[in-house]
Amino acid sequence: MDNRPIGFFDSGLGGLTCIPYLMRELPEEKIIYFGDTARTPYGSKATRTIRNFSMEITDFLVKSDVKMIVIACNTVSATCVDDLQERFPDIPIIGIIEPTARYVATYRGVKDKVGVIGTKVTIASHAYKNKIQKYNNRIQIAEAPCPAFVPLIEEGIIDNEIMDLTIRYYMDSFVRENNLDAVVLGCTHYPLIKKNIERLYPQLDIINPSDIVAGRIREVLDDRDGFASGSDFTNVFYASDLSENFINMIDNIFKDEEKKVKFLNFDLEREISR
Ligand code: DGL
Q1: What structural domains does the chain harbor?
Q2: Atom of ligand 1 at shortest range from CA of 147
Q3: pLDDT by residue for the chain (274 residues), tens digit each?
Q4: Whose CA is nearest to atom 8 of ligand 1?
Q5: Are the beta carbons of 274 and 243 closer than 8 angstroms?
Q6: How far, in Å, from the CA of 269 to the mean position of ligand 1?
Q7: 73 belongs to the catalytic site
Q8: 8 - beta bridge partners?
Q9: What is the residue-wise DSSP string for 153-166?
Q10: Of ligand 1's atoms, which has the minimum distance to the CA of residue 76?
């Protein structure tokens, strides 16, 4: 048994989409979440910058005594998961791409045409394609970067025509020309527009890594006999620049449950309770 919290991080609020699935899969677990809202989006930044930001946040989470770290960000997972594991060898650190790739390779038929949408960095890395095809090289993969999705989602521009037009701008010809059967939401912000994508492309199966990673967390904790039981730790959510949208999302996830939201300054030093 291990009652320490699990650390999650993302460039912003996207990684919060993993939390309801964790709560469903492992309701006893507690969370420390860090959203780097001051520096989002990561998906169009240089690899070196993403690595530096990720090292700082991982260091912060390790110092906060978490029992494992979930990189709830595809961009970071595509860029530096190995570097983080090497720098912090004493703590399990998992990315979100590897378990999703295993899932796609296992559960999609070889005749399927699977699309992956993500940030520019994730798509340019071909991390999904390479990992899926490592497990099953007969699955056909097409990839498309959708860089305008994250800024719109961070602004809460979701249930409206602007978002629908943006989705169609990136996806209409991508879906049609590749004759896709399924699409991987290769950015943790995208589950927030899953309903729009389902409505616009009802023929597509939607594969959601924010859901799949919960199963991988279970495996890691199971291996280490690390499940929590009766922990009285309060879930903590940090943002480097606390936004209304970030707070609203957490309110929606937890509804009536007890929660605690803190503001953490950009320099990762000064902490102010909300
Ligand atoms: N939510 C992130 C991801 O999964 C990052 C998006 C961004 O900051 O560009 O890729």
Answers
A1: 6-95+211-273 (3.40.50.1860), 97-209 (3.40.50.1860)
A2: 9
A3: 999 999 999 999 999 999 999 999 999 999 999 999 999 999 999 999 999 999 999 999 999 999 999 999 999 999 999 999 999 999 999 999 999 999 999 988 777 899 999 999 999 999 999 999 999 988 999 999 999 999 999 888 999 999 999 999 999 999 999 999 999 999 999 999 999 999 999 999 999 999 999 999 999 999 999 999 998 888 888 999 888 888 888 888 887 666 666 766 655 555 544 4
A4: 41
A5: no
A6: 24
A7: yes
A8: 33, 70
A9: HHTT--SSHHHHHH
A10: 10
